[in-house]
Amino acid sequence: MAKILDQPRYKCALAAMQTVQAIPGAIPILHSGPGCAAKLNDNNGTSGRYSPNIFPCTSISEKEVVFGGSNKLRSTIENALKVIDADLFVVLSGCTGEIIGDDIEEVTGNFADADKPVIWAKTPGFKGNNYVGHDWILKSIFQQYLERDEIAADEGEKEKGLVNLFVAPPQQDPYWLGNLREIESLLSAIGLKPNTIFGFGRGLDNLKKIPQAEFTILISPWAGLDSAKYLERRYSIPLLQYPVLPIGATETTKFLRAVQEFTGVDKNLVEKVITEKEAEFYYYIERFADTLLETRILGKRFTVASDSQYAIAVTKFLVNDMGLFPEKVFITDDAPKSFQQKITDELNNLNYGITTPVQFTTDGHDIHEQIKAADFAGTPLILGSNWEKKLAVELGAHFVNVSYPMLEKLVINDHIAGYSGGLHLLEQIFTAAMSKLKL
Questions:
Q1: What's the pLDDT tens digit per position in 221-271?
Q2: 71 CB contacts (<8 Å, ≥6 apart)?
Q3: Which of 3.40.50.1980, 1.10.940.10, 3.30.470.20, 3.40.50.410 would CATH assign to domain 159-279?
Q4: Burial letters for 378-417: b for 16+ Cβ neighbours within 10 Å, e otherwise?
Q5: Is the model's pLDDT at 278 over the cut of 60?
Q6: Is the model's pLDDT at 43 over the cut of 60?
C-alpha cells in the first residue's frame, strides 16, 4: 500500500528540468500541467541566460486529456523556436502527457531539420524522482545531441588529459556548482583538463567535446551512473566512478590518488599537490585546535539525515578527519535497492574500525522519532535538510543544513568539497555550536 511521504527531500523526475537549465544555452520545454511547472522550480537557479521562471510549457488541461496534447506540444515547440534565443531545446514529459499516451518522441522528430536542435526525454514523476530524472536527461542529451551528424562526424581522436567530470544533480544539491568548480580546480592542479557542461562559462561547446575525452570521472554513489556508463560504451571512454564526494584532507587525498592511478598522470605532481594542500589544511586546523578540541563547544556524536552523497561524505569527514562518532545515518534519496548494500559498505569503511547503523528511508517522521530516542551522551550534532531544524530546536541540538530542502541559507558559489570545503563545513558546524554558548 502506498504511504504518505512526510517531509519530502526530493522532487519528481520532471524537476530534473534543472539539469537542462544548468547548461548555458539550453532550455526545457515541459509537456505537463501548469501546476507541475509552478511547483517544481523552487531552487531559483539557472545557467544564467534565462530567468528560472521562463520556459515553455504546454499547460495540459482537461481538453488535452480528452483529445490528446500532441498538437499543443507541436505548436509550443514551434513558438519556442521563434521567440526564445536558445541553442538547445529539451522536451520533457510529465505524468499527464505520459498517462494519456502523447508521443513526445514522434512530435519532437518533426523538428529534426530545425535551425536549433530539439531533443526529448521522458521524465514522468510516477517513474522516479529527480535523481533518476537527472540521469535520464543526460543520457537523452548524449544519445540525441551528440549523435547529430555534425557532432558525431567530429568525434576524432581523444584529447590527451581531457576528462569529463560529473558530480551531483544541479540545483538538487545546494552546493552543486561550488563543489563542481572546486573539483575542477583540483583536477587542473594535477595536470588534467576537466570538461564540465554545467554553469557559467561551460555549456554546449564543452558538451560537444565529450566524445574526445580520455576519461570520465563520476563522483556519486549512484545518481548519474547510467548516463556515464553510456559514454563508456558508446565512445570507449573509461569511467572512474568515485562513490564519495571528497570533503576534507583524508578523502580528498584518497580521491586524488585514485584519479592518478586511473588516469596515469604524473604521480610526483599529484603527491606534490597533495603535500601542499594537506599542509595548508592542517595549518588552519592547528590554528584553531583549541576551539576544535573543546568538548564544551561540540560533543563527540552526530547523526546525518541526507541523500546518499552527503550521508557518505559528511560521515567520512567527521569521523576520519575530526574524530567524531556517528550515532546513526539516515539516507533519504530513495536510492535504488541495487545500490543500497554498496552505500552501506562505503559508509562503514571508516578509520579506526568505526561503524554506524544505516537506514534507507523517506519517512521524515520516523527519522525524527529515532533521533529523539537516540542517546548522544551530550548535545547532538544533526546534519541534514531544513526539516531537521525544528527537531534540533526541540532537542537543543546543533544543526547544520547541508542538503535539500535548504530554505534559510543562501548558497551562491560556496562549496564543501575538497580540502578547503572541509574547512568551510567546519566553519558552519562550529558557528552553529558556538552560537549556543552561554557567555
A1: 999 999 999 999 999 999 999 999 999 999 999 999 999 999 999 999 999
A2: none
A3: 3.40.50.1980
A4: ebbbbbbbbbbbebbeebebbbbbbbbbbeeeebeebbbb
A5: yes
A6: no
